[in-house]
Amino acid sequence: MSAPATHRTPPPPPSQPTPTRSGAALTLLDVRKEYAGPAAPVHALRGVSLSLAPGSFTAVMGPSGSGKSTLLHCAAGLDVPTSGQVHVGGHDISRLTPDRLARFRRDHVGFVFQAYNLVPHLSVADNVALPVILAGREPDLAWMAHLLGSVGLSGMEGRRPGDLSGGQAQRVAIARALFSRPTLVFADEPTGALDVRTGTEVLGVLRDTAAQLGQTLVVVTHDATVAAAAEQVLLLADGQVVDRIDAPTAQLVADRMLGLER
Ligand SMILES: Nc1ncnc2c1ncn2[C@@H]1O[C@H](COP(=O)(O)OP(=O)(O)OP(=O)(O)O)[C@@H](O)[C@H]1O
């Protein structure tokens, strides 16, 4: 990945180098996002450029309101930037029509939310298969069995979400996100609703399964321990990437975050 900082150096100035697009799983070029505010527009992203290598695991951290979720949503095709480009597999997805963007998400993106977003009256197996069924495709049941085994849910196919612990429910959400074999997997605070031990286990499941499948993983988190499990951490402040930490440790991430919040 090329992003705008070097290993363990002070934060760079806000201007960011343009990364190369060749061979990257995901490239953002000068992405800006404005929302209408009550008085003035809110500048949620102010020119983010980055490039993620295929199969890499990146954590995104930053103070509340710094633009983390907006960044994830623009990169995943859940939202459209006001300007700038989002390249996936050589295509700029930032200017697709809503229909084509929906098809892009269905075929290329897995998303894990903090609140699991499972359908309560459907079984574990049906929750996992739902996006594929809604896309009009036949679910691959052998793949389902493999995936549920990988996330530690073998034998729980018939349970309803209400009969699962928080950690189990998030494992179902992870299996659902990975079931269509997406190239990009995004997770917004996937451990935010879990206790520390369960969160660590669930994150390990997400990281290991995505690594087995060669997927590019991007996780937004407030937790320095979660971020330290990534290969690199991007720090956002006021809508810009202001630092990057390679080979992060929890202490290093916590220290840099403290620096940002001062
Ligand atoms: N739909 C929206 N309409 C108007 N403003 C928005 C909208 N979504 C986000 N914002 C604003 O954009 C800025 C960035 O929000 P975003 O949710 O991306 O930040 P965040 O870093 O993910 O915050 P948190 O850590 O609190 O979840 C904030 O000022 C927020 O209030």
Q: Describe it for me?
A:
The chain is an alpha/beta fold and 262 residues long. The chain is built from eight helices and ten strands. The protein has helices at residues 68-75, 98-108, 124-134, 141-150, 166-178, 196-212, 224-228, 250-261, and strands at residues 26-35, 42-52, 57-61, 83-88, 91-92, 109-112, 184-188, 216-220, 232-237, 240-246. The strands form two sheets. A six-stranded mixed beta sheet has the order 6-7-8-3-9-10, sandwiched between helices. Strands 2-1-4-5 form a four-stranded antiparallel beta sheet, covered by helices on one side. Strand 1 and strand 2 (42-52) form a beta hairpin. Residues 1-21 have low confidence and may be disordered. Bound molecules: adenosine-5'-triphosphate (ATP). Adenosine-5'-triphosphate binds at residues 35, 42, 44, 62, 64-70.
Task: Please write out the topology.
Blueprint (H helix, E strand, L loop, with lengths): L25 E10 L6 E11 L4 E5 L6 H8 L7 E6 L2 E2 L5 H11 E4 L11 H11 L6 H10 L15 H13 L5 E5 L7 H17 L3 E5 L3 H5 L3 E6 L2 E7 L3 H12 L1
Helix pairs in contact: 3-5, 5-6
Bound molecules: adenosine-5'-triphosphate.
GO molecular function: ATP binding; ATP hydrolysis activity; transmembrane transporter activity
Keywords: ATP-binding, Nucleotide-binding, Transport
Protein name: ABC transporter ATP-binding protein
Count of all domains: 1
So what's the oligomer here?
single chain
Bound molecules: adenosine-5'-triphosphate
N→C terminal distance: 28 Å
Indicate the low-confidence ranges by residue numbers: 1-21
Q: What do the pLDDT scores average to?
A: 88
Summarize the helix and strand pattern as letters. EEEHEEHEHHHEHEHEEH
Q: Order of strands across the widest beta sheet? A: 6-7-8-3-9-10
How many extended strands? 10
SS element count, helices: 8
Strand content: 15-25%
